[in-house]
Amino acid sequence: MKKVIVLGAGLVGNVIARDLVKDPEIEVTVLDINQEALNFLQNNFNIQVIRADLSNTDNLRKIISDFDLVVGAVPGFMGYQTLKTVIEEGKDIVDISFFDEDPFSLSELAKEKGVTAVVDCGVAPGLSNIILGYINSIMENVNSFLCYVGGLPVIRTWPYEYKAPFSPIDVIEEYTRPARFVENGKLVVKPALSDAELLEFEGMGTLEAFNTDGLRTLLKTMNHIPNLKEKTLRYPGHIEKIRILRETGFFSKEKINVDGVDIKPIDLTSKLLFKEWKLRPGEEDYTIMEIEVEGKNENKIIQYRYYLLDRYDKKEKIISMARTTGFTCSIIANLVVKGKYSPKTLVPPELIGENHDIFKILMTELEKRNVRFKTTVRELKI
Length: 382
Fold this sequence. Notes:
It is a single chain. The protein contains 13 helices and 18 strands. It is α/β, with parallel strands linked by helices. It has two domains: about 180 residues, NAD(P)-binding Rossmann-like Domain (Rossmann fold, 3-Layer(aba) Sandwich); about 180 residues, Dihydrodipicolinate Reductase, domain 2. The strands form four sheets. A seven-stranded parallel β-sheet has the order 3-2-1-4-5-6-17, with helices on both faces. Helix 1 crosses helix 11 and helix 3 crosses helix 4. The chain is globular. The termini are far apart.
């Protein structure tokens, strides 16, 4: 029996745990500070729980000592330190945290500790990287990678027409962190929310796309590709509302004094937006992702297109963004804990795609969970 501990019982963490526990060879424990979330998992699934403060690294070190694998599903601001702590303890980890720090700074530590540390193992970053890694390994020369991705509520509610499937503070990071991408072999840095465009998507109609900093590890591992870009999708009009908040200072981390009390505007904003963006029980959502990769094979210009439009699971009552993110993570975690995928180093998700056997298993297992891509391959005229 393999023992896995999931750090975080949020919308995605609880789905990862629920999926892993379906394997009779895996015993699952979830650690979180939220007793209500833990009670839900303990009372409805064969999942053990531990209530503890994840920010206390001393406690974390003691708790994870008895487990074969750790899954990181904590908010981004806790992600790097949590990952570092787990690696220092010599524990394998599969992580989905959207942290700002460079994960490659932990590569040598992972090698020294003999640890498999898979980072950014969600949907995007994550599944999008894995697909690029696979295509890059089967093409002679990749020229461009373009990814459009977003999680959207089925019902559009004023004023934001958006719901957050994960921590609002992590969503705000998408709107404030400078967006990095590559054009004609050169790194370009622009403000998040820039280069807005309206595009048509099958099954969704018109959506708004804008720059965000989603390429992450691809900027290093795929730096031979001269054009790399990811853009986030929202319903039209969302960008302008967010830009007003950002430019007014509502996302600032610099403290201001209000009637003798020092507060960070971003703390207040995230509290207010949590109420507006919180998905209520039964609220349905979509995950939409379109990936286009172009390159050369045998003197032909080939385009691969992967299109995903995933929906809320009414039977299991699982939101789509938690499905697509959580299942990618849980499938890879299952392979790691069973020793079927175990490079002893830090692993960005695109390297997973280069292993064709693992890529095939992942895509097959996603299909079993009704996460299905529409895939087309066509020759482009030169």
